[in-house]
Amino acid sequence: MEKYEEIEKTITKRFRKEIWKKFVKAICDFEMISEGDKIAVCISGGKDSMLMAKCFQELKKHRKMNFELEFIVMNPGYNELNKEKIINNSKLLNIPITMFETDIFNRVVNIEDNPCYICARMRRGYLYEKAKELGCNKIALGHHFDDVIETILMGMFYGAQMQTMMPKVQSTSHPGMELIRPLYYVKEEDILSWRDRNNLDFIQCACRFTEEYNQNHNEDGMSKRQEMKTLIKELKRNYDNIDINIFNSVQNVNLDTIISYKRGENTYHFLDDYEERLEEKKKTI
Prior knowledge:
This protein is of the alpha/beta class and 285 residues long. It contains 12 helices and 8 strands. The strands form 2 sheets. It has a 6-stranded mixed sheet, sandwiched between helices.
């Protein structure tokens, strides 16, 4: 048996409950795949996207639905060591990647305001363009459960807003294209366990900008997302299901107890129909 076949078995056997079932559940719950889809599985070279690619290959084997896959790797300017590691891991895992070059790292290195946000937007734009070139109508990203709850807390603490990372999103800049996140229910700790169980070595954050920025600004390298990760870890010491509750909070929103909320371009405030609702209540008494 080839090494990649052994790794595939761990996904559907050893980690069936923690990874495989949750991967399939997210796809079903949020209707991520439709008949005839062609999905660009976007691989960064890290553990999350590599696992996602293998899960898609397994799903394809079951053939319960007719869809096609393209495995794309965008090189934003990795050093040769990281680039080579991605290529070697793809061969080891039997993932037929299509790699294409960009100069994103060079273009954002001198940006002072929100460089990570701009870099992420540029990366996504390039991925959409490549996917479209390959005839795909969807791109799949490897964001997992922990990314979702960290995003919720970051929005509250630093953005003063209640929002979440959606399981799928229609692109506004690339009509007809959709982004999906099939690892939406999968916890990072289980991805790490899968990686270690198979003795795999993936690239970490390969952004050279982050290193240069932190050195120039005398920072310790802890990002806002890492702060949230650390906070959640601390909270879980007292209440193990705190992450689940954070996740569920954005699925159990009671609009009657929200001061204001946005829907598209419109903003609703609870005072807008406060008296009207009060009169309706009186009629029922």
